[in-house]
Amino acid sequence: MTAREDFFKEQKENLIKAIAHLEYSYKKITLLPTDPKELNEETLETWESFSARFSRVADIFLTKYIRSFVLLKDPGFKGSFLDFLNQAEKFHLIKDTETWMGIRELRNISAHEYTDKDLMGFFNRLKQEAPRLLEIKEIL
Fold first, then answer.
1. Residue 101 belongs to domain with CATH number
2. Number of domains observed in the structure of the chain
3. What is the pLDDT of residue 140?
4. What is the span of the domain harbouring residue 61?
5. CA 49, 123, 112, 40 torsion: positive or negative?
6. Residue-level pLDDT, tens digit, the chain, 140 residues
7. Which of 44, 50, 79, 87 lies in disulfide reach of 39, CB 3.0 to 4.6 Å?
8. How far lies 95's CA from each of 58, 73, 81, in Å?
9. Is the pTM of this model over 0.90?
10. Burial letters 56-80, b for 16+ CB under 10 A, else e
11. What pLDDT score was predicted for residue 108?
12. Please, where are the H alpha helices in 30-96?
């Protein structure tokens, strides 16, 4: 097995574990309110854990798994993050580059400060996009 194949296998294993953790957190938040005014410390902690797990799955999939997948198919490929997403779409790993750019945006904004209104929108978007991340296990 080559170093690239080993790296790909390692990323796949990391992704499978991270998805399992996200799935657990997703089940916990599905019935929680998204309005920060309705959250106590425990429910806010649950949302924050879910957000972190969402970001971890997105990060592993988008920056490591896709990159290693594309390089296994095309070892000489070079390009930006967007170029790798476009290649992943061409290889039918993902259906829509724009959707995954939106998920990357969610991952990137998770570290910012929010007003209650912003936080509620952020939680709603995470909740809406989580099933897409959970579906990754179907393409593995």
1. 1.20.120.330
2. 1
3. 87
4. 3-139
5. negative
6. 899 999 999 999 999 999 999 999 999 999 999 998 999 999 999 999 999 999 999 999 999 999 999 999 999 999 999 999 999 999 999 999 999 999 999 888 776 666 777 889 999 999 999 999 999 999 88
7. 44
8. 15, 17, 16
9. yes
10. bbbbbbbebbbbbbbbeeeeeeeee
11. 84
12. 41-59, 66-73, 81-90
44: which 2 tokens?
């806010």
Up-side HSE of residue 122: CA atoms within 13 Å toward CB? Answer: 24
Half-sphere exposure of 36 (CA within 13 A, CB side): 12
Q: Identify the pLDDT of residue 113.
A: 66
Greatest alpha-carbon span in the chain: 53
Task: Locate 139 and state its tokens.
Answer: 């393409």
Q: What angle (nearest 5°) sits at the alpha carbon of residue 82, between those of residues 105 and 132? A: 50
